[in-house]
Amino acid sequence: MICHPSNYFSNIKKKQQDVVRFLEANKIEFEEVDITMSEEQRQWMYKNIPPEKKPAQGNPLPPQIFNGDRYCGDYDSFFESKESNTVFSFLGLKSRLASKAEP
């Protein structure tokens, strides 16, 4: 199968939208950064992804998820954490259930 570039970028966009929808639905504050518009932001992202998380060839593709300067992971890691109900831990946040249980 040959992926047409527009399908390729469409897939990236769908993944980005999935992350954004989750964050919005859970009222988690976030900043969305378009690395296509800023070489500085793109270089920051590449520099702050741990070497063991970078692909063997090429550059990591968006979405890449950070909590401040802390690297959380890529979309696949995000999706896995969502499926296993560990996404708040993945994001470095307290679970909503834990914060509601505290007096």
Automatic annotation (TrEMBL):
Kindly list the GO CC terms recorded for this protein. cytoplasm; nucleus
> Principal localization?
nucleus
| Superkingdom field | Eukaryota
Q: Name one matching Pfam family.
A: SH3BGR
Instruction: Identify the InterPro entries for this entry.
Output: Glut_rich_SH3-bd (IPR006993), SH3BGR (IPR051033), Thioredoxin-like_sf (IPR036249)
Q: Which UniProt keywords apply?
A: Nucleus, SH3-binding
Q: Which Gene3D superfamilies match?
A: Glutaredoxin
Q: Does the keyword Coiled coil apply?
A: no
**Molecular function GO terms recorded:** SH3 domain binding
Name its cellular compartments.
Answer: Nucleus
Stated family: Belongs to the SH3BGR family.
Task: Return the protein name.
Answer: SH3 domain-binding glutamic acid-rich-like protein
Organism, per UniProt?
Phyllostomus discolor (pale spear-nosed bat)
